[in-house]
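Give me a protein, keeping tokens residue-aligned:
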Amino acid sequence: MGQLMSSFWSYWFPNKEYKIVMVGLDNAGKTTTLYKLHLGEAVVTNPTVGSNVEQIEFQNLKFEVWDLGGQANLRPSWATYYRSTDAVIVVLDSTDRARVGIAKAELFTLLEHEHLQKAAVLILANKQDLKDAMNVAELTEALSLHSIKHHDWHIQSSCAITGDGLWAGIEWIAQRVKGGGDAQ
């Protein structure tokens, strides 16, 4: 009877903490995203040098979210954070057409990393509130997302300042870490 209750309790109230690594080019909105999820409000941010880490709770799940600096000289250090990662959030500035090729190269580099082979990948198409933002279809094409065959992935329209789309993205990750759902 004790084992049955323990199993029931674990199903409804899991204590496992899942690790999410959040990456993207500088000025994409990673830190704003992190603190909108953590605090529920947009905060004034400075460029991240190194990392920020916060815990986010969603549907009885705990996520340890690592926001990594996106400047060119910091991107090579991203891989040091990949061990034991359950999901990756790639935050894109949807208005940064000039650097979408760089974002694509960084995405495909991280997809090849040995510690991320089982990680789900959420792409947040951030800054959708701005009139010159590329939409999800444009970004999907520009990033060649349909060529990703060995990772569950999803692209989510979002705005870190208002919070639009952020919790929908976290819900997609929650489904993946709990073992449900198929790739995009």
Observations:
- The domain at 16-177 is CATH 3.40.50.300 (Rossmann fold).
- The CA atoms of residues 94 and 133 lie 5 Å apart.
- The chain has a mean pLDDT of 90.
